Amino acid sequence: MRSSLLRASVASVALAIIPSEIFLANAFMSHSSLVSSITSSSRHFTTHASIIKNEACNTKLYSTINAETISSNGASSPSMQLVEQFLSQYEASLEEGQQWANEFGFAEKEEQSAEGSFYSIFRAIRGMDSKIGVGLEDCDKLLGLKGTPFYIPVALLAKAESASISDSSNSGTNMFSNFFHFPHLATALEEDFLDAQRGSTDNRKGWQVSEVSQPTGSSFDDARMTLSQVKTALESGTVIFNNIGAHIPRLAGPTLACTDALSLPGALNMYVTARGMRTSAPPHTDRQDVLVVQMEGAKRWRVFTPPTDGDVKPNADPFARGKGEDSLPLHTLLEGKEGRLGTELLMDVVTREGDILFIPAGFPHTTDTVEDADDADYDTSIHLTFNIDTHVWDLDNLSVRNVALRRSGVKDVLAPPSFSSSNAEINRYIGKVNQLPTNLRSQLIDALPLEFLDVTPNDNPAFVDPIVKYLEMLHSMVNEATGDSAAISANSLHEALGRIHSYGSSILDIHRDMYLAAVEVGRLRSREAAMTAHIKDSSSSAKVKMTPEQMQRLSLFRVRPFFEQIDAAKKELEQWCVSGNMAASSSSGPSGQLDANWQFTAPLKNGDEVEADLGGAFFPAKVSQVVGNTYNVVFFDGDRSDGLERDQIKLLNPPSSDSDEMDTTGLTKKEIKRLKKKMEKKMRK
């Protein structure tokens, strides 16, 4: 954002005298009865169960908890089983969570900590993901477009915690109920240099954001966002703190817990809303599977099934609907299955302090803070959103397939239109992928197993081979649906999985180091505060000035090197993807001049007319498949020859200097005209 860059620039100038080194850390019961016991205190705006029909699996998913769906008569459904499964996994993971908390110094031995509880929550989610369904093709899933949202109130979590520690007393609050409130945010604004956006509130338009604050002068303090600015922004919308787990030390522990428990690079956003906001977040979808934890006040959530208008709007990212120029008006979502979007209301719940809500990626949701209860006694609603970032970091089937094709030099028929990536990263989730059959699209953009980064692909064929076979099956289905003939070998997919694993592991390590650095800064601040507490004048209201050393540790400067490392890792993956054909491509001289041996060195693609070696003689043929660094051909008489090396094939026509092909899938006439102009301009350069 322009203003955040401006504020950062002002701060950087103000801190010019500070050394450039950045401080980094060196550290590093029966659940059916539990469910029944809480039905009387279920907090819902609606009193009925929202039921949908999952046509692909032919099962009913109950996605709310209330007396109609949970009773003593043994009634059950996939969602109720999901709730019981989560509670069972959560209770079983609590001891491991506290051990983790002890290891990282969040609690003394035998103490219970909020950070340990957060760890147990995500360990439970990971356990559920590995247990739901027996195979990769099974219908029941937790994550993604075929996933299942669920809501669990605080009392159920508290009961599970009591059962785990054999404590019969229960206060109705869980271990993290009081972990972060508005005063904690006020302290963080005083101690650090934070940034935030204010979200729009029109539920008929896409979600837009604007900066909460602008620099008021040229000094460091003038550039910092203040509590009064946050309060002013709350009068007209939700204040959004993105990736706040890297910035506020108190929230770094829970974010580290999420990252370690899932073995995924996790992230945490925080949303602060004033009570009485009719729309605190317009309807939208997210690229992440998210776990919401209500920290203060209350918030109403309405969650819908994913839209089915992809064939009408193929260039609408299913993971970013209702954002920017795209819109998901609430009234169209409420039209139901026969409406324009084909969505159904799944959940209508209110989260209160200590409640959790899980929403899979791609499921539209909207929030408000219009409270019906007469006894509501809060002014501000605060919730944390933990992001399970599989799609963000290419840890899904679609990305592996694309990486394997690009590495092999094969055009991806699902590649998005060229114009969409001119000034941004390529978005694989728009274009032809959205015109695939619904079930195939869902399977293709499904995440890899959550334990993927815990397994070394080359050392675990029993884990990797089924994934490769599944990807081969999906690729064949894509070819059948699109009429394409591109092939991917098992070796290419193994290689791509290995590279994605290496890339994901690097991103994971960078995130862990970033959160550990924030944790260490928080502990250092606590020690400094304890050392100076006796000399502070409690009657003084003067703002405390930061020392140069304290400024040096601000998140504005602390976090930046980690994001530079992330950018470098992304560029390294991109270079690897295109390096498979690098040697062949480099055979073309400067300014597009071909070398003398171009017929045996220039890159080949499907459909190229060639002469191929057959028993020592060359015969006319066409390239039918590019498989890694080898080629399959079909001869003039229909015979085939597979696995030929490049020097066994003679290209008959020089490769075109214009290698950019226009993909106009799903584009309007105006967009096609714009794309053609761009290509013509490129050719004139």
Spans of at least 5 consecutive residues whose pLDDT stays below 50 are 8-78, 132-139, 419-424, 582-592
- Structural category is alpha+beta
How many E strands? 19
Instruction: Provide a count of the helices.
Output: 20
Q: Biggest β-sheet, characterized?
A: 8 strands, antiparallel
The helix content is 25-40%
Strand composition percent: 15-25%
Overall pLDDT, averaged? 79
**Rg, alpha carbons:** 28 Å
Tell me, what's the shape?
A: globular
User: Termini distance?
Assistant: 31 Å
Q: Which strand order does the major sheet show?
A: 3-12-9-14-7-6-4-5
Describe what you observe in this structure.
- This protein has 685 residues and is an alpha+beta fold.
- 37% of the residues lie in helices and 15% in strands.
- The chain contains 20 helices and 19 strands.
- The protein has helices at 2-14, 31-38, 78-103, 114-131, 154-164, 182-191, 220-223, 227-234, 249-262, 330-333, 397-407, 438-444, 461-482, 490-532, 548-552, 555-558, 560-578, 582-585, 598-601, 669-684; strands at residues 51-54, 59-62, 150-152, 197-199, 209-211, 239-241, 267-274, 281-284, 289-296, 298-304, 345-352, 356-359, 365-368, 380-388, 609-614, 617-627, 630-635, 640-644, 649-651.
- The strands form four sheets. Strands 3-12-9-14-7-6-4-5 form an eight-stranded antiparallel beta sheet.
- The longest helix is centred in the last third of the chain and has 43 residues, at 490-532.
- It starts with a helix and ends with a helix.
